[in-house]
């Protein structure tokens, strides 16, 4: 069981008692393995419903998803490398929207980010935003473990300027690593509550999840949701 101090810090961030249900309620229950099958997707949706997860997050080829029934559906775009032309990302997002998604999680071009081409980052996010207009939610994956603090700040600013709804730490596929509390704190401070912050990548325990929430994460991307919420008190 997580420490009481950590539970209290997360409760303040959630503005609610920390329970299995309250944490699950901000989770994107995720299945992004390339070999994922339709049967595994059906099991994912059933698990998300049982756990009370906010959304499921899938690869575009697994859409449309007829059985979501009240659970939000997110799909990734430009995943996992981000090294796609902006128009390709936009076309992929448009196809996902046509297939009924509620949310798009797009990966930025990391070469643009690491070489200071923040205008190009903003332009590609704007292209995807144009293809996936509100009420579709747009999350921008910045692969924070690859970036310096300055680059994290500038890419978050580009995401906000381009009309994104969330900034997101990681794909979970990059060898540099996944979410860290430092990155989440920096991202949350940069967007100042105007955008949400999704922590994703390597979050496998309740302690890790609560640390991300206390640092400012307003959404979590988890593939092992069951194991995380099992460590938390019941409602």
TrEMBL record:
Coiled-coil stretches noted in the UniProt entry, renumbered to this chain:
none
What is this enzyme's EC?
A: 4.1.2.4
InterPro entries associated with the record: Aldolase_TIM (IPR013785), DeoC (IPR011343), DeoC/FbaB/LacD_aldolase (IPR002915), DeoC_typeI (IPR028581)
Which GO terms fall under molecular function for this chain's record? deoxyribose-phosphate aldolase activity
The catalytic residues are: 105 (proton donor/acceptor), 168 (schiff-base intermediate with acetaldehyde), 198 (proton donor/acceptor)
Matching Pfam families: DeoC
Matching entries from SMART domains are given as: DeoC (SM01133)
| Localization per record | Cytoplasm
Reaction catalyzed: 2-deoxy-D-ribose 5-phosphate = D-glyceraldehyde 3-phosphate + acetaldehyde
Keywords, A to Z?
Cytoplasm, Lyase, Schiff base
| Broad EC category | lyase
Q: Which residues cross the membrane?
A: none
Its biological purpose is as follows:
Catalyzes a reversible aldol reaction between acetaldehyde and D-glyceraldehyde 3-phosphate to generate 2-deoxy-D-ribose 5-phosphate.
Check the record and name the NCBIfam families matching this protein.
Answer: deoC (TIGR00126)
State the family it belongs to: Belongs to the DeoC/FbaB aldolase family. DeoC type 1 subfamily.
Name recorded for this polypeptide = Deoxyribose-phosphate aldolase
Q: Which organism is it from?
A: Georgenia deserti
Taxonomic lineage is: Bacteria, Bacillati, Actinomycetota, Actinomycetes, Micrococcales
The encoding gene:
deoC
